[in-house]
Amino acid sequence: MASSMAAALAASQAAAAPVPAAPVQPAQEVIPASWAKLVDSEAEITLRVVQLDGLAVMKIMKHSRDAYPSAVNGILLGLDLDGVMEVSNCFPLPAGREGEEESVRPSSKYQASMLRALKEVHGDDNVVGFYQSTAMGAFLSQSFLDLQASHQKSLRHGGIALVHDVSRTARGNTSLKAFRLTQAFLGAHKARKFNVQGLIERGLTFNNILEELPLQIHNTPLLDAFLLTLAQPTVPHTPASLYPTSSLSDLPPTNQPLTPTYPILNTASTPALTHNLSLVLDTLDDYNQESSNYAYHQRQIAREKTRAEAYTAKRKEENAQRVREGLPPLPEEDVSRLFKIPPEPSRLESMLLLGQLDGYSKTLEDVTGASMVKIYAAKAGATAA
Amino acid sequence: MSLGRPSQAVFLQPPTATSAPFANRPSPVTSVTVHPIALFSILDHYLRRDEKQDRVIGTLLGSRQDGEVEVKSAFAVLHAETAERVAVDMDYHRTMLELHQRINPREVIVGWYSTGGNLNNNSALIQGFYQHETAPHPAIHLSLDTDATDGQLGVKTYLSAPVGVTPKLENCVFTPVPCTLRYTNVEKGGLDLLSNAASSSTHLAHPEREMEELEKAVTDVVGMLDRVLSYVQAVLKGERKGDPAVGRYLLDTLSAEGPALGRKGAEALIGSQLQDTIMVSYLASLVRSQVEVSSRLALVT
């Protein structure tokens, strides 16, 4: 899986390098000199941009929409070449129930058999990351990060995560974003250190868990040709007598691909806003609960600590007393064994909740910003009329 | 919208017999709608074919409702064909079907696709196989003309009917069925993005910001209004002969605006919506700054 074309190229080049030309097997292609710098078997060329194929875009959209409003994920397939991660295909994964450990295994089995099947028809079978659908912009979650962190180990370039916001795409604003984890988060994840100290050391907030990669859309030439065919107005061949008038065809033909519908011009954003606001409230509740949990843990720790300190102080006093009375002092017992001081709770959960809140309110800001523009435009139109 | 050039064929349906022997027969297929993703998968499969393969085939998945077949997705199937014989990898077909149905249990086999515009004896044999898979419903056959025989990448769909005195698998007649493209509003967003890429000179597109998208939509609509306006004025001046069809379309479009609110009503409506929006916007930025402060505070304790 990890072997990619670049790696294969590197291997063939290594074979060719010591003895030029003659002993190279005819089946192996010699890499032209201009390509040699692109050979990147160790994934050293840093990723600059993610390039998404039309097929993958549509598949992600279909899968996310079919399952809406529940979030779905799937596997991205492709190759990286000279800093461009080319995602050419993808396939959905069966929905596992949230928070269920067993759901991991069937989906990896599913992944393996799907990859085998795709390989048979010469499809790409090189996993480069995964995609995740979301609604209203909050996608940060424990499972998202765990999946990405597991990819980070097994995939070239650590894999990418693509987030598709269905609710915004439905309003005419295609929302696709590519991410990968930052070094700061990876360090914390590897050390499993999400307590306050660990966060301070790395300066980790929800803002720097992920870094965004620029994304571009690219079609295969055949798909380009097909789309341009779709954009061509089809002139009916039916005899003119069936249609008494020559219809709209004597207006100059438009250059519109497909039929434009302009969902983006819809000014009624209220239903989406209500839903979004209630999601914000829900997350706030969750956050509140999480922080009171945290406070409870803190108090627990503080209480145990004072008890332990009181015990040692008492023991010291007692020993001083015994020394004065000429008795041998009692042994200093291991305090940590007597009192179980609970470990400091992880702040990851509350950090993620904050991240979700930020995502929701960012979507709110974007939507309201755009709809204010639209309303003002409508107002200008209404008063001018 | 329709795909490819309309055919001149007349498709005759046998009358739906309600008499006893035909009572529980499925309703005949009258039209086929295809989602773009199925066509895109077919094109991708064709691009990845073996060098010596002339055409590729695969299975179409979708749903049926009252004689309308909706093709929602497609997957590739291995096959080999020579002039005399044709082999379809059944095991592969079964495996893929099972994998697909675990994601989308509601999608069933509705037929098969092939690329290239030609129908031959082998097509009839494969059709026979898929008929068997989709029984009692008829299987549809979609052909995507990758050779562009009539100048474009046309899509045609067919049904088959047995022909001849003794029914044989390789004897069947393919009758065309009307086929249209259908997309949901989510898919439309994606299609727009892809066609931006197709028509740009670099063959690349970027998911746009909302404002750019809005600007483009407004300019487009303004352009259309200008065109209609100039046409109407030309007709009024008598420079052009008015077209009743255009007039009818314009009337329908303009009267679909809903009840006239009057200036007062419109302003009140806009005003209240504006207030709501501004309130939500303030709230959102308040939440964001609180969240930001809170996450920073977690770092200083």
Automatic annotation (TrEMBL), chain A:
Transmembrane segments: none annotated. GO terms for cellular component: eukaryotic 43S preinitiation complex; eukaryotic 48S preinitiation complex; eukaryotic translation initiation factor 3 complex. SMART domains: JAB_MPN. Component of the eukaryotic translation initiation factor 3 (eIF-3) complex. Component of the eukaryotic translation initiation factor 3 (eIF-3) complex, which is involved in protein synthesis of a specialized repertoire of mRNAs and, together with other initiation factors, stimulates binding of mRNA and methionyl-tRNAi to the 40S ribosome. The eIF-3 complex specifically targets and initiates translation of a subset of mRNAs involved in cell proliferation. Residues 50-185 form the MPN domain. GO terms for molecular function: metallopeptidase activity; translation initiation factor activity. It is found in: Cytoplasm. Keywords: Cytoplasm, Initiation factor, Protein biosynthesis. It comes from Calocera cornea HHB12733. Pfam families: eIF3h_C, JAB. Belongs to the eIF-3 subunit H family. GO terms for biological process: formation of cytoplasmic translation initiation complex. PANTHER family: EUKARYOTIC TRANSLATION INITIATION FACTOR 3 -RELATED. This is Eukaryotic translation initiation factor 3 subunit H.
From TrEMBL, chain B:
GO terms for biological process: formation of cytoplasmic translation initiation complex. Belongs to the eIF-3 subunit F family. One of its GO terms (molecular function) is translation initiation factor binding. The lineage of its organism: Eukaryota, Fungi, Dikarya, Basidiomycota, Agaricomycotina. PANTHER family: EUKARYOTIC TRANSLATION INITIATION FACTOR 3 SUBUNIT F, EUKARYOTIC TRANSLATION INITIATION FACTOR 3 SUBUNIT F-RELATED. InterPro entries: eIF3f (IPR027531), EIF3F/CSN6-like_C (IPR024969), JAMM/MPN+_dom (IPR000555), MPN (IPR037518). This is Eukaryotic translation initiation factor 3 subunit F. Component of the eukaryotic translation initiation factor 3 (eIF-3) complex, which is involved in protein synthesis of a specialized repertoire of mRNAs and, together with other initiation factors, stimulates binding of mRNA and methionyl-tRNAi to the 40S ribosome. The eIF-3 complex specifically targets and initiates translation of a subset of mRNAs involved in cell proliferation. Keywords: Cytoplasm, Initiation factor, Protein biosynthesis. HAMAP family: eIF3f. The keyword Protein biosynthesis applies. It comes from Calocera cornea HHB12733. Residues 32-164 form the MPN domain. One of its GO terms (cellular component) is eukaryotic 43S preinitiation complex. CDD domains: MPN_eIF3f. It is found in: Cytoplasm. Component of the eukaryotic translation initiation factor 3 (eIF-3) complex. SMART domains: JAB_MPN. Coiled coil: none annotated.
